[in-house]
Amino acid sequence: MQISHVLPNAMYVxxxxxxxxxxxxxxxxxxxxxxxxxxxxxxxxYIFKLDPGQSIDExxxxxxxxxxxxxxxxxxxxxxxxxxxxxxxxxxxxxIHLNRDFAEIHCxxxxxxxxxxxxxxxxxxxxDNIRLHQVGLGDCDDTLMFRENPAGDLGAGVSVEDDxxxxxxxxxxxxxxxxxxxxxxxxxxxxxxxxxxxxxxxLRVLRGLRxxxxxxxxIVSFKFQGHLAGPEDFGKLTACLPDYQFYDLxxxxxxxxxxxxxxxxxxxxxxxxxxxxxxxAARTYENILAFPSPEVxxxxxxRPPASPSSA
Length: 311
Hints:
32% of the residues are buried. The two termini are 24 Å apart. By secondary structure, this protein is of the alpha/beta class. It contains eleven helices and 14 strands. The mean pLDDT is 88. It has one domain (3-15, 65-302): 3-Layer(aba) Sandwich (Rossmann fold). The protein is globular and about 50 Å long. Keywords: Methyltransferase, Transferase. This is Methyltransferase FkbM family. It comes from Neorhizobium galegae bv. officinalis.
């Protein structure tokens, strides 16, 4: 470790330790007292309408943002004028926290209730570089029958083959458009980053974007449930991204002891280590980053990241 990194990394460890042991437990107890949607201003100054029963909302209130370490890693690494597609935008956590990194962010969210909350959050923060589209993207124009998950994450339901309701959830009929054609219809001529977070639908999204990706060669981010899907399923995804290289953002393992995690954070200042892989292991990959070439990877990783958050 370089001497110049010792003090910032040590400060990061102190802040993270205080956050995990003192601040976050206090916030969880406070959140437990909430029973209705409420307005919250985060430590970064962003405004969210939060539902205490939703997991993403809980993370924003307790930790300051959802998937914060991933977003912090992305900040400051894109070139001026960059454009992003946020496919499966949910309530806008990613778009809002990355709004300063892109000239335009196009959010796609077909679920009416989630889209309403997304719209409220973008308007509350007066972010005019974020465009909202109440549609899903796929490999053809279609109507998706989607079983809503009311407990914990409205956006984390599943597609179904019939429209029979259940006692605990309702079936939504969501509009889906062929991704490449819809993007062209919007007049989007530059794409630098695509984030895909759609339950059980990302293969169809990637197939629909194959031509768009071939022209723009953006960095692509997606999740992969390696314990539920095998290498052959991963191969279908990678076939939509020919010549791309795939990287996992590795942090201290969840199974590591508290001391081992502190040592990791001290060595790396909280930043992940990017590890290239071709075949996934039988585990969850929260944020795979796919790069179109070694040159793009080098430019991305060598750009100075944003300063570590104090949250």
